[in-house]
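Subject: Interface between my chains keeps coming out wrong

I've been trying for a while to get a sensible model of this assembly. When I model each chain on its own everything looks fine, but I need the whole thing in one frame so I can look at the contacts. Pasting all components below, labels as-is. Any help appreciated, I'm running out of ideas.
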Amino acid sequence: MLNFNIAIPKDRREQAWWIWVGVLGVVLAVGVFGAIRVFVKGLHVTGLSDQVPWGLWITQDLSSIATGAGAFTFSAIVYLFRIKKYQPIARAAVFVGFLGYSSAMLALAMDIGRPDRFWHPLVYWNVHSVLWEITWCVILYSTVLVLEFLPIFFESKYFDRWPQIRKYGDLIHKASPVFAAIGLGLSLLHQSSLGATYGVLSGRAIWYKPSLPVMFILSAIAGGISMTLLLTMLVSKLNQRQIISRELQSDISRFAGYALLAYLYLKIWDWAATSYYSQSPGTTQALALLQSTTPYTQTFWWIEIVLGGVVPAIILLSNQLRKNDRYTMFALAAIIVGVTVNRWNVTLSGLIAPPQWSPGVIGRIFSASYLPTWNEIIVSLGIIAYALLAFSFGVRYLPIFPKDEQSAH
Amino acid sequence: MISKKTSNAKKNGQGKPLLSRKDFFQIAGATGAAALFTQLITSGPLSPDAIQGIGGRSHAGEEGESKYRWCMAIDLSTCIGCQYCIWACQATNDVPDDDMRWNIGFPERTENGTDFFMTRPCLHCEEAPCVKVCPVGATWKRKDGIVAMDYKRCIGCRYCEVACPYDVRRFNWEASAPKKNPYQPTWGSPEIERRSRGVVEKCTFCDHRIDRGLALGLTPGVDREATPACVNICPVNARIFGDHNDPDSPLFKFVRENETFRLREDFGTEPAVHYVRPEKEDA
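Reply #2:
Try treating it as a single job with all components included. I did that and got this:
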């Protein structure tokens, strides 16, 4: 009675599918047009500047990687710690992870000034740069994701005619524990290093803190689990079949709730230690500037903490509320929104309120500004459309989900 | 594994060694690896001191000499705000776009209401945040202290712009189509190649002049051919350049004789540009 129904009647399904694919296809095409325009005209068609050199695309990059973190979480749980009951969702997690990481790489390819030199970090090393480490980790981990995903791909009907290839797929699948271990190591490194990208910059007081890497990985675990489960539940609803058991769904939701609680705990202490119980001139000035010129203080409290933190934590940790699919899906979506807004706020806060260096007083009220242009927005939407299209086709044609509850092995 | 074996040995009471040979090698191996890793990140090419470590190695021949430490002083009490230094820089380094000036200046006011003109090139920090963060070592520190750029290596990620607290870096946003440089030839002629779109640019202390000048036996900061364009053009000598390691250099003398400060020393960046306050106390 509590569970809502968004299922499409069987006779209208094919029509709905083509409308869905058609709409996404158009958005993707518009995005490709936007991307070509950027490559031809240069990055000055974006709203970015030398004061705010990172914006929407970097936020998208960080959010895609964070919400793709379900892959390493579930791979480690299933193949490394051998908690087999999570097996039915592991494939979906790997698939969603792959889409997240490929989206991130697309966003990055748009953002860097010389995408033709994307391979430079592999050849020219600066071991002291967290970004160098991140580049290596993301490339290696994407390879791991492809290897983890290949066996699923080879299982599809299309490969019936090539049993040899399928055999290789099985061979790769046997190595799953190895990939899970490597994936866990690489993810622990780069998911937190993405926070360290900002956390190590001693010239920017508002960022310079050791808590950022840890907050990034905790929020990524919560966000990654949420993205995987939310998409799984959506597919369940649309197809009117329970893909994973209600018990497993409840377990995973609770797991997301605990991960979120850990994140919230650290986040509250981070705020309390840096801006409630103490005053450091750089941070206090920057926060005051942000409060007076941007909505970031409001979005921090209302979206990151309340909507994306406290509310979903209550829903997912309450045995009563968690039984309701509508509440659960709302909570999972709220976590994803919270993590995304967090990545935006972290990126922009340090840039909008830059450190003051002039010995004069006129510049004391300087704050930079940034608004993404339409060109940036259509490219971002295009990347999202790519991920949704790939997900839709994957669910339709590949054995991503167990056929029914029982056959989940 | 270890606990299982040792407990078995105890249970059986057969006087087996507490550690098997395999256990011993495992523990020794793990300890050795941990020690090696600790050694690697505290000293050697991975240590925080070896910033150039691997990235800088392939810049042989352009690294300068470690006996020099090129520094600049800017006297804000002398500066008249004519902006010649800005235009000379744009002509010499071929920066046609005013939004991309490497040498930036704007009117400012002190707390006491004295107007002055604030200018700053790249500060060529001793502990440059931009050098530490560059993922490809495209921005690197020369032995003589100059923070240099390798435009052929830069991928345009702009992390250096994010890391630099002084806002001295400029990304090449727009196509560098054959755009006319309005400052040439009035303020100088181009001495270096114009950069391609998509890389981050910055002031180099005119290192091409320093290198060529030293090769010809000239003294940067004294001989005009070996001195940065902005220093040469200044009509009131508000900019002084030279080797901080040389007690006879004009820069060393100036810094010794004047009360100077550096921008935001609390960041620990150790800039190489020294300033004299706009309101000189002995005036």
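Reply #3:
Confirming on my end. Residues 246-276 of chain A form the longest helix (31 residues).
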